[in-house]
């Protein structure tokens, strides 16, 4: 609404505002509800507590409540393509306040994983990249090296950030809070054996 | 073969059973899962089965007609119906059987719906199970016998539990029908929650205006007996004949006398938060929840003896006089004190006040300074008189010793009218108080006045009169009817070290006595005092005042173990007394006169008998303390020599042996107490002994039992659970005292005492542990004489035929949802609090006001607090939307504030409800569809500064909104009463998992329960608004009437019976019968059963080892046959 | 008392100060912490959300190691995880196994093949929990030698310590840290943001959004007159200490030292500052006296 107002009113901006049932995926809600953690999804009464409690909702394209509503209605493309699921900071404020005790954070997780599985998320998008980097280090050493992780992350996503953060990095390093070397477990083989996949792929995803 | 009492039935008339089996489809309920034709075909081939039919609805008339016709036309003489649960239709089909001219108990039901079709997945399984059950039923019914139903008369009276609007309405209907009604209400008044409301939705008519007339009707109705402030404790019996035990809680105001004038409230000194005003207003300890309360009788809240009073060995009512002082009522306070203590000025100064040790206030900061307040009261009173005895008695009592024990005993006996004579060897009265305690702690004039008052009321004092040579105990016994020996302990213990006889070595008591009697004398500059008790410090401080410059107290343990009162230690140090710990005297040195004290250093070892660590000398650590005088205060023993040996027994501690309960000595008529029995002890215990002796002597002289009921004399502890959460810290007010430099040079009293203002301020720190403080103010002003502190809870037994439960609900505790800030932000209220606020007779007189008195500009109402939330209650509380609308309207009307109402779904089902919603929309209330996430005082915007911010998503507009408001109202949901589960057990009804009482059937029996004769009305069955509650109350009353007006109930003929030939006469069963229906016939050697008394519980049947006891409808044979039948098919 | 101790990656790197203060201050209370041998990454939050199976496996290995370690004595092991992220990851793993047996099966299988158990019996604890429940504030209070002199502390619990599983405190309005600070002689600040998100990993991945959250927290703490913020999670500490722009560099609030609650514990116990990793703070802690005075209310 607000945006339209800013743009000013032009007939050429008119877009049909009807959602055709045919464009929706009726199997989507059941599919999502089947994912571990998303089971109670269908209990939602759209009260909006999650949105109200969510510290990130102001920055989201769809509020958590709408994500759940849209999931239930079969808006597959919109839901999996949304920023919302990536903006969730896992603070669980929604989960503990939901009157229907829907673990909304876990639902967001489920949707993220679905989006990755279907490879629909913005290219060079930091969050999945971060996860991948983490995984690679952990695969190699069993433990994480925060310094190395951030370094790779920024290289992989926005080198510019790296520059902007260099100063901070230095100050941390001086205080011994930023080692680039990583500790590692003794039995790496055991760690690798319990992990699901063979050696992981390189970071970064493909365009949605 | 069994030979029970039977009526001739079809079975026998025309040989052998011919059974009809009728299988019901119940629409598709059964037929959907059970292959009915197959079942019928199966049934038709079972032995004795003459007819097998199926029908869509057996319960419908045509269905029943099938049965009736088959019976009438003689095709069959027994009936099996396979359909739903017997709970639904057993009665229906028994009637049909009877209609067919056959005894209704020649019928058996097989449940193939609840037990089969509804709980079985596959058709084949269901069908087989149905067959098995029917086979069982057929085998069973073949053995059924014709039985007669017992009729029991129904008691015409009725009981209604709960005096809210539902209970009131039910009671009135029952009463109007001419039945006696007992109405039991737990609170002091009728009215329930409705009495708290201002207006009722949707009509907005005044709650009081429609409720109070009904309350008055209840009070005046000839058929209603109102038992307010009472609780049902026990329910025995069964439908039509209940015996109910009711506990009438003591309200300490007699209902028959109280005129409700309210004079008592004006004088009551105790104020506490009013439950009726939901904590927004206050009430007194004696109170009436609201003006129109019914009954109008006042009630006193008492929690019991407060800890301070219990701890005091003479049980001074500290809370009482403290409360009165807080109000500046010093004279009244004095009267309370004098009830238990004739020596207030003395005790106010030198009592060791165990009361403060037990003070609950210590859990918050520091105990209330009770002694200081007592002292102030005595000082304020100035020249007062002690109450004079009402009657005179001839007997004379001699009291030996004018110390605290003697004086107290004399006072108590004088009060009773005895002639009391007190003898003392000293020239002054007061004993140790006079000679052992220095003037700067216990001014002489004060002592004299207190003692003087005893003389005023006729206590005779004979000073300078030692008992012994001139006047023997024997003589006293002869001249008096009783003697109390309280000679105290004045003989100094000795140090037993070399040199202690050197001049310059004094005993502490001897030293103090000399100074007290003859005035100060010089001790030289350096004085050593040995000991760690109060008298050591007294001696040291006295020494200072005698001009000594270097005074040192030598103690063998450390500060922590000092028996002296820490405050006295503090005062002594302030005056310059030095403390030498862990040092014990070895020898007094000096030639001709003491010049030094040799000490040895000590270390603390393991605890000794007294529980304190035992000091042990460190070898070779001797050292010397030069000095001019040594004062040894290491305790005293009584001087018993003069009393003569005859009869008086001594302990190995050189004290008198007495019976601890009565203080009797071995010599009849002679009693003893105080220090001469206990050894050196504190004043208050001596006083206690004095009173104890007085009680014994009185009983002795009246020839009563001396021992009976005296356990609670002396100090004890009360366990008090008082919530001190959130009590603001306010430390004790220190008592002003002379500057130390001045003290050293004078015997003037050190502590100068509270001013009246200080005393009142300090008194206000009291937490009113006992609530009512028994100051008797109310009793004094009550002209009707209705106040009765001795009132006790009473039990009453009621016999009633039917019971209506209308115990109502409780509001959800909003603290359980922390993020809404109730109990954290003062401007967050519950709906009930706002109901009180907008109520004209409420704490704000109907004004909508914030705590600071200001008018709110914006108010937020949050719906569904504790409803529709799986974290609290998952159900919808049903009334909140409507009362929120009502409150929104009233708040706007009273304050003109903007109202924001946050809801999930607006639920307005009911006559005129939606219209009310429309009205509020039109009034401009802001409705926001969204459940509130949080209430906080976190301001992100200047407009939010100093406000409460409500954060919620406006789900209809799809934006998160932050709404700053001045006041938040939480629409709390309804919950089952906290004790719903106990109550349901008591009345033997069931609860749903949410705690609401369970109705027998949600649609067809909404006000009956599974216990015949017990009915439900109002919110105890589930959340309900007023109209629904009243409607349901009417229904419950009607059903109860249907029962009692019929006058009788038919009982299942399931009574037990004895098969004599099997009875071995072992009598196992007789004591087991809860209804004592069993007896033993000694002649026959068999047990007999009184069928009228038997309730068919089956206990005896199960217990009988020989199977001689059987039960109709459940004979072993019938049960075995049924099992066989089921198994034969399975 | 002895506990098994799971440091997690952060306490070995950006959160060194946490470990450095935790161990000595617990020793001061006779609480011994034995580091879990050969522990590995807990399967961090960012990760759980992306590859459940892998994250779960990692968490479970740690629990399994702990269980094995405990099987010496058959009583259930208490595993202390100071990092709120690890604390939750480990808890979540246990819940996941219990609630989604099917989805957890592969991970459990691989662990079994590696000769590892499920770690179901291990009790995952947080130091705060242990202090309040096991040690007891009375004992803590008794051990205080340098009371914090009414220092105004804003207790910041963060999210994952009490959410979603409110194991030892209220998920909306926790109080354990406040009560602890009071016992240390500090004056806890009454504020509503004690569990509001600090931005988590978003401060790194989407700083323009993540860092904003941290700044809001500090602004409010400062506005309420806090002299310092106490945290119980290395990520919270990092975000609040390192990212926000202070008044100096054009931010909305004066710089506030952000400490681990264990560092304040150590200070109150009179443990030398250098042994508490205080020099690692970006916003330095002023002298105890100055801190006690509290900051100006703006």
Helical content of chain B, roughly? 25-40%
How does the major sheet of chain B shape up? 5 strands, parallel
Give the termini separation of chain B: 28 Å
Q: Find the biggest chain interface.
A: A-C, 59 and 66 residues
Distance between the termini of chain C: 44 Å
Give the number of DSSP strands of chain C. 8
Structural class, from secondary structure content of chain C? alpha/beta
Biggest sheet of chain C, in brief? 4 strands, parallel
| Sequence of strands across the biggest β-sheet of chain B | 10-7-6-33-44
Q: What is the residue-averaged pLDDT of chain B?
A: 92
Low-confidence stretches of chain B: 1-12
H and E order of chain C: EHEHHEHHEHHEHEHHEHEHH
Estimate what percentage of residues of chain B fall within beta strands. Answer: 15-25%
Binned strand content of chain C: 5-15%
Give me the Rg of chain B, rounded. Answer: 42 Å
Specify Rg of chain C, calculated over alpha carbons: 19 Å
Q: Give the proportion of residues in helices of chain C.
A: 40-55%
Task: Spell out the blueprint of helices and strands.
The complex is a heterotrimer of chains A (208), B (1130) and C (298).
Chain A: H1 2-7, H2 28-33, H3 49-53, H4 64-73, H5 76-80, H6 84-87, H7 93-97, H8 104-117, H9 126-141, H10 146-156, H11 159-174, H12 188-194
Chain B: H1 10-13, E1 19-24, H2 28-31, H3 36-44, E2 49-55, H4 61-72, E3 78-83, H5 86-99, E4 107-111, H6 113-117, H7 123-141, E5 150-153, E6 158-161, H8 165-176, E7 181-184, E8 199-200, E9 205-206, H9 207-220, E10 224-227, E11 230-238, E12 241-248, H10 263-267, E13 271-273, E14 282-284, E15 286-287, E16 299-300, H11 307-311, H12 318-326, H13 330-340, H14 344-350, H15 354-358, H16 370-381, E17 396-400, H17 404-415, E18 419-423, H18 432-435, H19 444-456, E19 460-462, H20 473-479, E20 482-485, E21 491-492, E22 505-507, H21 508-518, E23 526-530, H22 534-545, E24 550-554, H23 566-575, E25 578-580, E26 583-589, E27 596-607, E28 613-626, E29 629-632, E30 636-637, E31 670-672, H24 675-678, H25 683-702, H26 740-743, H27 756-763, H28 777-781, E32 794-800, E33 802-805, E34 809-811, E35 828-830, H29 831-837, E36 858-865, H30 880-895, E37 898-903, H31 913-923, E38 926-929, E39 932-936, E40 948-954, E41 959-965, E42 967-972, E43 974-976, H32 980-987, E44 1014-1016, H33 1026-1046, E45 1048-1051, E46 1056-1058, H34 1069-1072, ...
Parallel strand pairs in B: 1-2, 1-3, 3-4, 6-7, 6-33, 7-10, 17-18, 17-20, 18-19, 20-31, 22-29, 23-24, 23-29, 24-25, 33-44, 35-42, 36-37, 36-42, 37-38
Antiparallel strand pairs in B: 5-45, 8-9, 11-12, 12-32, 13-14, 15-16, 21-30, 26-27, 27-28, 34-43, 39-40, 40-41, 46-49, 47-48
Chain C: E1 2-5, H1 16-27, E2 32-35, H2 45-48, H3 52-70, E3 78-80, H4 84-99, H5 101-113, E4 123-125, H6 127-135, H7 137-143, E5 152-156, H8 176-183, E6 187-188, H9 202-205, H10 207-223, E7 228-231, H11 234-242, E8 258-260, H12 261-268, H13 288-293
Parallel strand pairs in C: 1-2, 1-3, 3-4, 5-6, 5-7, 7-8
Helix pairs in contact in C: 1-12, 3-4, 3-5, 4-5, 6-7
